[in-house]
Structures are given as C-alpha cells and as structure tokens.
Amino acid sequence: MGRVQLFATCLGDLVFPDAVADAEALLRQAGVEVVFPRGQVCCGQPAFNSGHWRAAARVARTFAKAFDPRLPVVTPSGSCASMLVHRLPGLLGVEPYEVWELSAFLAARGAEPAGVNADRVVAYHDSCHMLRELHVEDAPRRLLERTGATIVPLPRADLCCGFGGTFSVRQPEVSCAMADAKLDGAAEARVDALVTADPGCLMHLGGRAARTGGLPVVHLATALARGVGSRP
Questions:
Q1: What order of strands is seen across the sheet that includes strand 3-6?
Q2: Would you call 164 helix, strand, or coil by DSSP?
Q3: Is the C or the N end of the chain the one with fewer CB within 10 Å?
C-alpha cells in the first residue's frame, strides 16, 4: 500500500484547502495511506526567493521538524516541491527528502482517476517551477486525459503567468498583462476551464479571471478528483 506525507503548503492551507482535500482523496484512491503532519507550516520559499535566506532557514526548520525523512512527501504545488528538492537540503544542511509533486507521484504509481471530465475541453498551464526545475510536463496532461478531458494546447505554453511570487507585487502592471495574455490564449482556444497544478498560478490567474470575467481556473487536484465543472 505505501505511506506518504501530504504537505499542504501555505496557499493550500489558507486559500485552497479544497484542492488539498482533493489531493488527499486522489492519493487514497491510488491505494496510498496518507499522513498529514499537524506541525507543518511553510517550506520557507517566499523568504528564500526574496533573498532573506536566514529567515527562510528559520521557517524551513518547521518543515524539518514536522516531516519524517523516512517517508515520501507529496505536495500539490510544483513551486514548493522545487523548494524542498533543490534548496531546503543546502539551506538546512540536511539529507534530501524524497519529494513528489502530486501529478508526478500519481503518474508514477499508475493511478487511474475517475472519468469526471467526459466531453470537457481544457487547457493546461505549466508553472515555471514544475516545467523548468522539476521537469514535470507530461504527467498532468496524461492524468487529465484519463479523466476523459480533451486538452487543447495554449499558445506559448512555456511562458510564465506573471505571478512569480513577489514579482506580482513589485511589477503589478507587467504581472497582470502576463496573466491576461495567458487567459486570452485559453479563451481563444474555447476551453471549458484552464487547469494548473500550482497554487500560486491558480491564485494569480483565478483572481485575474474573476476580475475580468474570464473562464474558470481550476487546480489540477480538483480537476482530477471532481472535474473542471466542480469549483470550490
């Protein structure tokens, strides 16, 4: 059966708890026992990306205290997975954890999600960290296809959505223009929803879509567990 630890992340905990619950449901459906460490807080990524490495290390220690290094860690966030894989070991001087982004784990396990997206047409947005640092590109798309969804490619799918953590705060005009370009590409493709696996991208694109009357933006975990027509 196997056991994994589920890392909710800050945005998952505070903004998208339904996506975290959907991630847990998908893991259990795949035959995995899920452990949810109660002491988890943050991986330290916001401080690290802002150049405050000492502050990032203080925060990252809460992760090291909460999570058992003997069990795999699965998270529904590409950016947080990248932080844990590429930066936390050096930051804290610890051995690397076995860390999986959710879709990569499910695909490696051969998960077969239910056909919750029959006759639905979606576009998938690759987050920068998942695409460039984790090299997870095919897994989300294969899983969506297994739910019955038809995937329409976005124009310049490799481009950032404009979130970029503090970039969206420091350069709001550029950030919003990048989000609008991404949403316009999805709208031109005439899809039912835009799906992404990173809570940061989801917050940015979903917030912008709500403000401009754009199409639904759905976390991958929700799209796989309940379908793109089921929004939190």
A1: 33-35, 3-6, 73-75, 99-101
A2: coil
A3: N
Strand partners, 5: 35, 73
pLDDT in tens, 182-223: 999 999 989 999 999 999 999 999 999 999 998 999 999 999
CB 84 within 8 A of CB 73: yes
Do 196 and 130 form a contact (C-beta atoms < 8 A)? no
Residue 51 φ then ψ, to 5°: 90, 5
**Of 165, 149, 159, 161, the residue nearest 44 (C-alpha):** 165
Query: Which pLDDT tens digit goes with each residue over 132-189?
Result: 999 999 999 999 999 999 999 998 888 898 887 777 777 889 989 999 999 999 999 8
CB 89 within 8 A of CB 95: yes
